[in-house]
Design goal:
Blueprint (H helix, E strand, L loop, with lengths): L1 H9 L4 H6 L11 H4 L12 H24 L4 H31 L8 H6 L2 H68 L4 H17 L4 H15 L14 H11 L91 E3 L17 E3 L17 E3 L17 E3 L17 E3 L80 E3 L5 E5 L4 E2 L7 H7 E2 L5 E2 L2
Parallel strand pairs: 1-2, 2-3, 3-4, 4-5, 7-9, 8-10
Antiparallel strand pairs: 6-7
Helix pairs in contact: 4-5, 5-7, 7-8, 8-9, 8-10, 9-10
Length: about 550
């Protein structure tokens, strides 16, 4: 076969012979020379020209709708409609590009196929290649559609939220208008000449304060002003025992308000409402100076930080009330019930607490100048750390009171009852007056009582360990069985004092004053029988005694 081919190539037969020879199927490969022959270039069709008008139109629609949605002053629904049209057209354009030219390019068809290239591929191969590319691109497009759907959903939700916010704002505006109408009507009711109408206005304002926190302070300022303007005038000398019905109603509403919403202080200055019923009232930091509140019921009321200077609370019930940090300058609290009241850190000048009931009251760290506590009951009260300048505690009952670390200057404790009171480290400076005071069983450990007047004071069984009683007047005082261990009694006047059974261990009965003068305790006529800690001889050496001084035989 090869020899024939070569023979045919070397000596070709005439054309006639070739034309008369019967044709046979070609079984041999195309010679290399024919197989690699460069095809004749052909004109490639420009398929994109068919797409160009549609692309331009779609782009124009997208640009126009986007511009309109952004710049035009139109309702929100129209703006969102234009934005949706722009997004829809853009999505259709992208899908058309992906399914058409992009799919062909992904399948390897960079340019439209020539006739020769089309003949080399079967129809099935071409269709499969394009379909595979379209399938891939459709998946990508599906992903884009999903992402676009998510974005559109988010935008829709945002739009819904904006719509709801707008609706809410509109509702708030409507509600505020209704509140304004309710407020105006309620205030008008306060000025009515009819009691029931005024009561309706008071309770309408209370309900309005609950519904509108922003108007809380304004409403209660109005109610406080109503009380101040409608209580008895200053020209009225004889006040009623109880406030008028509408005044009491306004006070009750003020007292039970939600005080955590307060943005200012309640002003009840100079109100004249004796006998007012305000139990558990919320009046912290209230302005109540010059208020007339005699016989008022303020049990368990919160008056912390209240300004009560010059207020009259005579006979008022302040049981378990909170008066911490209150201003009590010249406040009248005589005969008031302050049982278990908290008066910690209060300050006051010339506070009147005569015959006040302060049993178990807390007055820790209080600062009172010139308080009048004559005949006041302070049993089991806690006054630790307090400072009382020139207090009058004559005949006051301080039995079992906690006076630890208290400082009292020029205190008058004449005939006061301090039985078993705790005066540890107490300081009674500047000649405190404890004449006839009952200090039996009192704890006066390290107490400072120098130059105090303890004439006839009852100190039986008192603990005066380490106390300073130098220069004190203990004439006829009862110190029997008292613990005077390490007590400074130098220059103390103890004439006629009863020291039977007292413990004088390490007691100081002799010393010198700041001028260097010798000072001895005066035990003339004192009863020193059964004294402990010192022998009669040791006492005679350091103290003044006489023939009437009694020693154990």
């Amino acid at each position: 076969m090869q020899s024939r081919w070569r023979q045919g190539r070397s000596s070709p037969e005439p054309s006639g012979a070739l034309s008369n020879r019967p044709l046979r199927p070609h079984r041999h490969p195309i010679p290399p020379l024919i197989q690699h022959r460069t095809p004749i270039p052909q004109q490639r069709p420009r398929r994109w020209l068919h797409w160009l008008p549609w692309v331009i139109a779609a782009t124009a629609v997208i640009a126009a709708t986007s511009w309109a949605a952004i710049t035009l002053d139109i309702p929100d629904w129209a703006r969102w409609t234009l934005a949706g049209i722009a997004i829809g057209v853009a999505a259709c354009l992208i899908l058309a590009v992906l399914i058409g030219p992009a799919a062909r390019r992904l399948a390897g068809e960079r340019h439209p196929l020539t006739e020769a290239e089309l003949r080399q591929m079967t129809v099935n191969e071409r269709v499969e290649a394009v379909n595979a590319a379209r399938h891939t691109l459709i998946q990508a497009a599906t992903g884009l559609v999903v992402i676009g759907g998510v974005v559109f959903t988010v935008q829709s939700l945002w739009y819904t939220a904006q719509t709801l916010e707008t609706s809410r704002q509109a509702q708030i505006v409507t509600e505020q208008g209704q509140i304004t109408d309710r407020y105006t009507k309620a205030v008008e009711q306060l000025g009515s000449s009819k009691l029931d109408v005024r009561l309706g206005g008071i309770y309408a304002l209370e309900r309005l304060a609950q519904d509108s926190p922003r108007d809380h302070q304004t409403i209660y300022d109005v109610l406080a002003a109503f009380v101040r303007e409608h209580d008895p005038a200053p020209s009225v000398n004889k006040l009623p025992e109880k406030p008028a019905t509408d005044i009491q109603a306004a006070l009750s509403v003020i007292a039970r308000r939600t005080h955590s919403r307060d943005t200012g202080n309640i002003n009840l200055a100079e109100v004249r409402v004796p006998g007012a019923a305000l139990p558990q009232a919320r009046l912290a930091n209230a302005t109540m100076y010059n208020a007339e509140l005699t016989n008022a019921n303020l049990a368990e009321a919160d008056l912390a930080g209240a300004d009560l200077h010059d207020a009259n609370l005579t006979n008022a019930n302040l049981y378990n009330a909170n008066l911490t940090r209150a201003d009590l300058d010249r406040t009248a609290l005589s005969n008031a019930n302050l049982h278990r009241a908290n008066l910690a850190d209060v300050g006051g000048y010339e506070t009147d607490l005569r015959s006040a009931h302060l049993e178990e009251a807390i007055l820790t760290n209080s600062y009172l100048t010139g308080p009048n506590l004559t005949r006041a009951s302070l049993t089991d009260a806690n006054l630790s750390g307090s400072f009382l300048d020139t207090p009058n505690l004559a005949r006051a009952n301080l039995a079992h009171a906690n006076l630890t670390g208290i400082e009292m200057t020029n205190a008058n404790l004449t005939d006061a009852d301090l039985m078993e009171a705790n005066l540890t480290r107490a300081r009674l400076t500047t000649r405190g007056n404890l004449a006839d005071a009952n200090l039996s069983g009192a704890v006066l450990f390290d107490a400072y009582l120098a130059y105090s007047n303890l004439t006839r004071a009852n100190l039986r069984g008192a603990n005066l360990t380490g106390a300073n009683l130098s220069g004190a007047n203990l004439t006829d005082a009862n110190l029997s069985e008292a613990d005077l261990t390490d007590t400074d009694l130098s220059h103390a006047n103890m004439r006629g004092a009863d020291l039977r059974g007292a413990d004088l261990t390490l007691a100081k009965l002799y010393g010198t004053d700041p001028a260097g003068r010798k000072r001895h305790a005066d035990l003339s006529g004192a009863d020193l029988r059964e004294v402990k800690g010192m022998t009669p001889e040791e006492i005679r050496k350091v103290a003044i005694t006489d023939g009437h001084t009694k020693f154990s035989e």
